[in-house]
Amino acid sequence: MTIQVTRRGFFKLGAAGLATSSMAMMGFAPEAAASSIRPFKLTHTKETRNICTYCSVGCGVLIYSRGDEAKNAHQQIIHIEGDPDHPVSRGALCPKGAGLLDYVKSPSRLKFPEVREPGTNEWKRISWEEANERIARHIKADRDENFVATDSEGRTVNRWTTTGFLAASASSNEAGYLTHKFVTSLGMLAFDNQARV
Amino acid sequence: MSNPQNILRRSATTTTPPQGRHEVEPVAKLIDVSRCIGCKACQVACMEWNDVRDEVGINGGTYNNPTDLTENSWTVMRFTEHENEQGDLEWLIRKDGCMHCADPGCLTACPAPGAIVQYANGIVDFDSDKCIGCGYCVTGCPFDIPRISERDSKSYKCTLCSDRVSVGLEPACVKTCPTGCIEFGSKADMITRAEQRVTELKGRGFAEAGLYDPAGVGGTHVMYVLHHADKPDLYAGLPENPSISPFVSAWKGPAKPIMSAIIGITAFAGFMHYLTKGPKDEPLDEEVFGPEGEDAYLREHTLSAPETEPHEPGRRSDHEPR
Amino acid sequence: MTNHWVDIRNADVILVMGGNAAEAHPVGFRWVTEAKEHNNAQLMVVDPRFTRTASVADFYAPIRTGTDIAFLGGLIRYLIDTDQIQREYVLNYTDAALLVDEGFGFEDGLFDNYDAESRSYDKEHWVYQTDEDGFALRDDTLENPRCVYRLLRAHFDAYTPDMVSSICGTPVDKIMRVWETLASTATPDRTTTLLYALGWTQHSLGSQIIRTAGMVQLLLGNIGLRGGGVNALRGHSNIQGLTDLGLLSNQLTGYIAAPVDDEQDLDTFLTARRRAPLQPGQVSYWQNADAFFVSLMKAWYGDNARAHNQWCYDWLPKLDKPLYDILDTFERMSKGEIYGYFCQGFNPLAAIPNKAKVSRSLAKLRYLVSIDPLNTETAEFWRNAGEYNDVDPSEIQTEVFRLPALSFAEDEGSTVNSARWLQWHYAAASGPGEARADTHILGALFTRVRELYARDGGAFPDPILGMAWNYKQPDEPSPEELAREYNGRAISDVYLDGQLVRRMGEQLAGFGELRDDGSTASGCWIFAGSWTEAGNQMANRDNADPYGIGQTLGWAWSWPANRRILYNRASAKLDGTPWSERKSLVWWDSVQRRWTGADIPDFPVDSAPTRGQMPFIMNPEGVGKLFASQGMAEGPFPTHYEPLESPVPEGNLLFPRNDKVRYNPAARVFAQDLEMMGTWEEYPYAATTYRLTEHFHYWTKHVHLNAIVQPEQFVEIGEALGNELGIKEGDWVRVSSKRGYIRAVAVVTKRIKAITVGDRIVHQVGIPIHWGFLGLARKGFLANTLTPFVGDANTQTPEFKSFLVNVEKDTSGGRT
């Protein structure tokens, strides 16, 4: 409902506005531009159910985005608040959950694969293909060099201990399950997560 | 969206408000200080919903951040470490913000027509488009709530999320409050609720627990349950008997015909102000106001009468970081 | 959590100790305020600091950090001596009556058979006395001096109120007030809930502190009842799920312990996991380990997993030590023994103790891969940030990759909350730039590695080439495909007692359908039931609470089997009727001849009370364990030892004659790290680290709203210490440990009091974590600059909560 007006444009409206004020002085009710002091900002936004990413209370959140999923519309998240149906949180969110919008929109969000080459002092943008290729080759080179199939007593151990993996704490079960398959397939043992820190 | 028929009062306006909607039930926010953990979710939800962000400040040696209300922080937690008579520590945490007085000093003092409105449901709202930045609302407020923005010289404060309330939702701070320390409903229901809370607190040894709904401003639409209702001052200087400054009352009473002339000029100044400062990248129009701009113009023409009445000197400084 | 968030409202007494629920879990804490209002509950807080939780508590008692076993051990002694135990529960539902091996003993701070060189025990005698059938002997009079109950009382004999007070620094009257209030819930109609978090885990004795708490709850008869339990308030949103899925060096999925070197064949491996009952007729559910394991291997290796090749058992890596934990990994990294490291949503430069060591270690890597929605200090460990990160990039040869991951808001899938609820969420928008889901990142990387091995060969490619990866888009498996896989399906028709229970290809309804013959596949047995033929149970949204006690069984899905309160059969007496109406939860319906009630029974549903099966179905004893047998590194009963860095001048106040038991005798300390431990003479103040409610670990420094409400690094000291050092609020201070220093604003507070330990005044210092050299919040020091590199002897959880520092007024200019 807010109409953007330029200064020059507003000058033209100015006289009318002034007249209204003067009318008020004389005891007439001003026209109620006040009816739109604060338009409700969620009208027609899309509502998506989600779970807060921070702590393990697992509060329900409702994410509001602009764009009705038409092919040409890029969804833009504009607001996040609590899900009143959630039996634990009942619509409430703590200071972190209440600020989730600024996490989603953080200027520190990463947008592209990057590499910092040895000895340098900067990030260099690379493609996903290049990132995958280079990392996969690191994995294979290290694993081929240091994989232990049998130990000194001749026992089958099939382990690789020279590359480690710290797993996420806020990624989904599906990502975690896939991570476990990835790590186990390689025989990796230096595998830990945030459970302890 | 607010229905204009629901507006009870407008600042600097002598019109009789529409009488058709007086059956609108007043609303209230109840803040039970005994349940507040000072998590600041309400501060965050307030900024998020209202699309404002305060500055990343500094730590002044306390948990108070931001350290005071600002144009962008319409509510802040105020932490007080209090040792009671038994020597036990109490960490009193009060959510500060607009009280939405039934008899609002800000509205009474405001010279800009329609810049402050009071809805039939009790919410006192600022219409920034009409604000002239004179600061009288600050002077008129017995709770030291409104803040004038240095950026656009407009006054800002809690709206009780009038946009949410008007579409049937609760204010953002109420919804987000993790412990249920902030509740919202009809004022009658909130008073009943407060009585339940006070009874429980008395059962836990807080003999002086009570409701803060000060009569001096006609009652408020934001109320507190306090464990020590006999000593509101303990809670970071909550005034014991707030009332509108006698001077503000006076100048809007018998002095009104005289003041109206002033207001007329003020209103004009207000529009000029918008023209010059609203679209902020525009230079000040020296042709209209002369080289010192509209501030000088305002100083000259509005007489600044209420500013001679200080609003509880020194109170503001209590909230500054020490 | 044994119980769940909403159930807290059913408690009569709430003890928050080893945690700060209001600060760390404000919305879960709502149910504490509900218990106070609607159940007239008493909230008590025992903590070194008067916390946000304490601000709304009925009672607060201070304690010296790291001394919780003394406090709780004294409580156990008090409960036994005053006979304030739930006697019928203790006798029937715990191992109190079981007799312990004659070779078990404890003297002057050590259990028998300790080897000082390896810092470990020979656990041979940490077992019950058994009869010829392998069943434990018992004495129901509890008079036999070898019964667990008598040995337990003897173990804590020295933990008198005065001794506890001198160790913990808690005044005796405050100790007694807490003990008496807890003891009031020994009656069958009242319960205590214990809420704890990292304030108990992050000690060199963390696991034993939690065990002591569990023992208290068993003595009070509070496990399995509503409003009871031992409730770990987990940290991150899905750390419960990732633990359930076994993303740890010593775990497969669903708490199946990973194989070790000595377990060279499948039968040896499974025998060690089957856990035969130790009392006649008990459920001992781990007897089904074969079905869990074989189904896992069918999920992972598909058709390659066959009976004749032991279901690909050889393909699994075997452990040569108990754990490859993070401390062990960084120790090895510091020695140049690790070449590559992946950090998926993890910021070890901030999260592992002794930042200097972590930084030095990362610089020895050949490659580092950070997968994260946000920039992290770890990804930029090579960047010079002046005083905050004083490194020279040109000298660091590590190749660092930074891969952008989607955030929760752009990703679909499930997470497990602290109450074991698997909750499904949906994507609201696409991510920024070229950010990808973690599943996409790993899917694409795995398929690339697999291509390289398929094409070029290499070291033992079989488990890579043989890993089941039959996703419609192998680069990007969908959340639904993965969820259906960990739930499990029938590979061929499944029969139970000759009856067809599941047709080939159907999703399994629960772990009861798992088979050890290869006819079922399930990636995580405890998640079986989450995505059945009826669809995605994790997305259920019926919040009805028919009994009005907070049991919303139609909301999401809880493991195991949608049970919300673990061991809930213990809410009923031996005869199957509730201990009291106030606490009724599940009960035996003698007409239907089934267990029924407000929860899914955590018990065989048709096992009549007369059959004598006991509620703790995962334990071979069938009962709760006061005696840990061989499960713990430091011994079957908890013992108070000092933190590695302790403000107590010498020894252990409990064992003044034995200078070898000052700190945990089973703690693993690497030689160089031992040299980096400070003494109380140099570093006189006891320090602890914690997170603030406005923050989430190291993430929210990137979040504008959170940076606003808590912008700048500070430390908290008491007024007495402030006066002593001439420091007032807002002054800048320098806090140092043997490992480094930080500078921060001082918050000088009444909420931290000096306490008396032995005959010494001890000041405690509070150090919030969060700030670093990146983000929107003001720049600061990573707090792990100060913390010691030592962990709990069982889990290796770092001792972030108890160490020594010095505090001085900062003279270097304050804010930069």
Automatic annotation (TrEMBL), chain B:
Composition bias, Polar residues: 1-18
Compositional bias (Acidic residues): 283-295
Cofactor(s) it depends on: [4Fe-4S] cluster
Cellular localisation: Cell membrane
Cofactor: binding comment: Binds 4 [4Fe-4S] clusters per subunit.
Main subcellular location of this protein, as a coarse class: membrane
Residues forming coiled coils: none
Domain 4Fe-4S ferredoxin-type: residue ranges: 27-55, 122-151
Keywords: 4Fe-4S, Cell membrane, Electron transport, Iron, Iron-sulfur, Membrane, Metal-binding, Repeat, Transmembrane, Transport
Pfam families in UniProt: Fer4_11, Fer4_4, Form-deh_trans
Keyword flag Cytoplasm: no
Keyword flag rRNA-binding: no
Basic and acidic residues: compositionally biased ranges: 296-322
InterPro entries recorded: 4Fe4S_Fe-S-bd, 4Fe4S_Fe_S_CS, FDH_Electron_Transfer_Unit, Formate_DH_bsu_Proteobacteria, Formate_DH_C_sf, Formate_DH_Fe-S_su, Formate_DH_TM
NCBIfam families reported in the protein's UniProt record: FDH-beta (TIGR01582)
Function in brief: The beta chain is an electron transfer unit containing 4 cysteine clusters involved in the formation of iron-sulfur centers.
PANTHER family referenced in this protein's UniProt entry, alphabetically: FORMATE DEHYDROGENASE, NITRATE-INDUCIBLE, IRON-SULFUR SUBUNIT
This protein's name: Formate dehydrogenase iron-sulfur subunit
Organism: Vreelandella malpeensis
